[in-house]
Write a structure and sequence with these properties.
Number of helices: 11
Number of strands: 5
Order of helices and strands: HHHHEHEEHEHHEHHH
Distance between the termini: 183 Å
Number of domains: 3
Length: about 375
């Protein structure tokens, strides 16, 4: 029994030393290991006083000041930097123009495949858009996310530039060397702890010891898997550069404008630009007018009908007011209103006369009897007779 207690005390003291050494490199690892270590510490403290001595010794050597761990971590990072090159993640943004979208897209797919890369995402739009003056213009564009092996990136950009017109290009590089080295260092320390735990597992004699070791071993292996996943993600981003490529199909490439040398050249360029704008505006208006003639006719008819209805309503109201004024039940009309009423009555009279004449011609009403001629007046004798 004493032998078992002594073995437990030695194992827990060693585990406590490793846990304290891992506190500086990863806060998440220490937080995950804190619960099982506290339980194991309580168990050893109750069984043997050897745990206290071993724990205090481990804390004095590395845990209290942290200098021993800091030096080992610095040495690990230094060795990692010496053994490996800088870890750079390259991202490139390119905006390009082309006069043959299909040919360029086929070339890019073939080139990416030949360089050992792959197209992560692709969005191709084939359609049209309306510009000022409701003018239709064909618009085809493509947005692609491409992953290219880092050494082949300059050649890929050069080939795209030869077959298109690059209007905008930006490049960013993220140095993850220190983060990469820190993760590798942490992984190596966890691997060493895993080996020690496996050895302790082989020498465990009680179920309690095996459960304690297995719990810590599971946590360490989980952290190792997490570190390896991060390293694989970094490796993918480092080995394969990311290219965000935006392509637009145009009729003519955009040519950078040269600044005028003299004042008169600047005036001439500005005048020409404004004159072209005016001509383009007249052209767009003419195209818009001709293409919208059917709509304009419909609107003209609608407006004409509305105006006629408003005129009839106003005339009817004005005639009612005139009749009221003649009967002495309403206020008298102004001279301007009287003139309007006279014109309305004159139009109605002419309209009634035309209708009557048309009805007589069609035989709907009998013709009016002829008016007898007025007899001539007798001659007036001269005044002297």
């Amino acid at each position: 029994m004493k032998k078992n207690r002594r073995l437990q005390g030695l194992f827990l003291a060693a585990a406590m030393t490793v846990a304290l050494a891992g506190c500086g490199s990863s806060d998440s690892a220490s937080m995950k290991a804190e619960a099982p270590m506290e339980a194991a510490g309580a168990y050893a403290y109750e069984t043997d006083a050897l745990y206290d001595a071993a724990a205090e010794e481990a804390w004095d050597e590395g845990g209290s000041s942290g200098s021993s761990y800091e030096m080992s971590e610095a040495d690990a990072k230094s060795n990692a930097l010496k053994d490996s090159s800088r870890k750079l993640i390259t991202t490139l943004n390119i905006s390009a123009e082309t006069d043959d979208m299909d040919t360029l897209l086929a070339f890019i797919e073939h080139k990416v495949d030949g360089l050992g890369g792959y197209i992560e995402s692709s969005n191709i739009y084939n359609g049209s858009m309306r510009t000022y003056g409701d003018k239709v213009r064909q618009s085809r564009n493509a947005d692609m996310t491409i992953r290219i092996p880092a050494p082949n990136l300059p050649g890929f950009v050069s080939d795209v530039q030869e077959r298109s017109n690059i209007t905008n290009q930006s490049k960013s590089m993220e140095d993850v060397t220190l983060s990469y080295a820190d993760i590798e260092s942490h992984k190596r320390m966890l691997k060493a702890e895993e080996e020690r735990l496996l050895k302790f597992m082989e020498g465990a004699e009680t179920i309690e010891d095996m459960l304690t070791i297995e719990e810590r071993l599971t946590d360490v292996q989980y952290q190792i898997d997490s570190m390896e996943s991060k390293l694989r993600t970094y490796d993918n981003k480092i080995n394969y550069s990311t290219v965000y490529l935006s392509i637009e199909e145009v009729k003519e490439y955009t040519i950078p404008e040269e600044e005028p040398d003299t004042l008169w050249e600047e005036i001439g360029a500005g005048f020409k630009e404004n004159l072209d704008s005016v001509i383009e505006g007249f052209r767009d208006f003419f195209v818009w007018f001709v293409t919208h003639i059917p709509q304009l006719i419909v609107w003209a008819v609608v407006i004409f009908v509305i105006v006629k209805i408003v005129g009839v309503c106003r005339g009817s109201g004005l005639k009612k007011r005139a009749a009221a004024a003649e009967n002495g039940t309403g206020r008298p009309l102004t001279p301007k209103e009287q003139a309007k009423v006279a014109k309305l009555r004159e139009k109605e009279a002419k309209k009634a006369a035309k209708a009557r004449e048309k009805a007589m011609k069609s035989g709907k009403i009998p013709p009016e009897p002829p008016v007898p001629p007025t007899p001539p007046a007798p001659p007036v004798p001269p005044a002297g007779e």
